[in-house]
Amino acid sequence: MTMTVTNPINLASTLCEMPPGPCAIIIFGAAGDLTKRKLLPSLYNMRLNKLLPENFAVIGLSRAPINTDAFREDLTSSTKEYAASRFDAEHWNWFKERIYYLQGNFDDAKVYSNLGELLANVDREHGTQGNYLFYLATSEDYFETIVERASQANLHQASETQWRHFIIEKPFGRDLKSAHELNKKLLTVLKENQIYRIDHYLGKETVQNILVFRFGNGIFEPTWNHHYIDNVQITVAETVGVEARGGFYEKAGNLRDMVPNHMFQLLSFIAMEPPTCFDADVVRSKKTELINSIRPLTYEDVHTNVVRGQYGTGEIDGQPVPGYRTENRVAPDSSTETFTAMKLMIDNWRWVDVPFYLRTGKRLPKRTTEIAIKFKSPPSCLFRNTTVSNLVENYLIMHIQPHEGISLEFGAKIPGPLLQVGPVQMDFDYQDYFGPSPSTGYETLIYDCMVGDQTLFQRDDNVEAGWHVVQPILEVWQSEKPKDFPNYPAGTWGPLAANKLINRDGRDWKI
Ligand code: BG6
Fold it and tell me: What is the reported pTM?
């Protein structure tokens, strides 16, 4: 992650001064959606922004029985559809000539010797110099196999002059034990500095900006603690249902899909202690320290402080939508949750007695990700003998998506002879200020992997710390089937219990 606080407007030009060196990217699972919708459009965007080396190639590998020509054609149409920027034929032709396809099963050793030969050719043809980024865009069932087979073919071996990095997609494990075992297996073959566990939330500009906002400014951090902050609310709301992923979702559920990864990234950045420098390991140690400071949930806490929900039929944007149990590849009596809310406490000096309320779900009324930080009221009301009976609540809101910006809500005197206070808002809008910067959100992460910067990737302990926090929830939910599913209509803010969770503390959800 290249952070340039002095010249934030032209990030692309800043990065250009340090373009990645020659390399090839090998995408496992190249026929899948992620490749078409995100990875290729990102690489193409990087080319447009001069963030790819001239000596570059892409090799797609999957079981689909197609050849390089068909793969190139397929990617031409998908990139036209999904690239965030304009389609430029000249750049695309440069790109297209560097795309190759290899068909095979991920567990077939022969595929890896073929891959070795193809890479040697690509190195000769495109000058990629033996630097390889392996992107595992496959189901998690293949992570171990691919790394193992790649190592048997000696494709993983880095040297003084050549790097070999592996991006591992989520989900990384399905509980603490499986994540730990996967880490152990990967680390028998690879070094930690070769493993890039990706969480696409860390590719979002607004998420990265949380650190700049907190640690690149002098005015906020002094108030960033229990003396001034009353509570923090993190909401990741989606209007979509499970789309075509019923099969995956039935096994994962909302908690696994969103909380120990995306939600905890937001939580770590908002609540972690300042790192002493912007070194990848220093930052990542601070994140683990924060997640490890979350007060462990007892089974009793899971009952009182964690809420699960599943959507039934309802309406989104005025249109009727089906309930979860009638979605494709979902069991008609499914007890999989599509909504999670929880209250967490952080046991450190900074956050003593400050509740963190987290809420995420599918088929909620609007798509929004935001973090609302509520400040405490002044110690006493100065305006007691006036018409001002209630002071306005002070919120700092970080809008992560789709609206990208930061707003501050406070009270101001309403003009006129009477002393009246009304809520006003100060807004910073990314788009207004910096202009549009079309991206898929994967560009920075791929770039960082190419230059060997792991700051925005999860270290083994980061991942395990997250699973450790949610493990009691997984256990309670596994042993006690929900009796009230579906318990929220699509298009509403989740089950009533999610409101009770916060109302019983005398608070409300901000949205
Ligand atoms: C993915 C989850 O990791 O994140 C999806 O598997 C979810 O279920 C998605 O929809 C949300 O990402 P974003 O960037 O749209 O908020």
Answer: 0.94
Give pLDDT tens digits for 166-203: 999 999 999 999 999 999 999 999 999 999 999 999 99
Q: Name the closest-CA residue to atom 13, ligand 1.
A: 201
**DSSP annotation string for 87-151:** --HHHHHHHHTTEEEEE--TT-HHHHHHHHHHHHHHHHHH--TT-EEEEE-S-GGGHHHHHHHHH
**Which ligand 1 atom sits nearest the alpha carbon of residue 252?**
6
Domain range summary for the chain, segments of one domain joined by + = 21-169, 202-438+453-503
CATH domain 21-169 topology: Rossmann fold (3.40.50)
- Closest atom of ligand 1 to 254 CA is 8
Q: Are 122 and 24 in contact (CB under 8 A)?
A: yes
Say which residue the tokens 């002094």 belong to: 222
Pairing of strands 421-429, 405-413: antiparallel
Q: What is the CATH number of domain 202-438+453-503?
A: 3.30.360.10
d(CA 236, CA 219): 27
In the structure encoding, which two tokens stand for residue 416, read together?
A: 């006129």
- Cα dihedral across residues 120, 123, 128, 130: positive or negative: positive
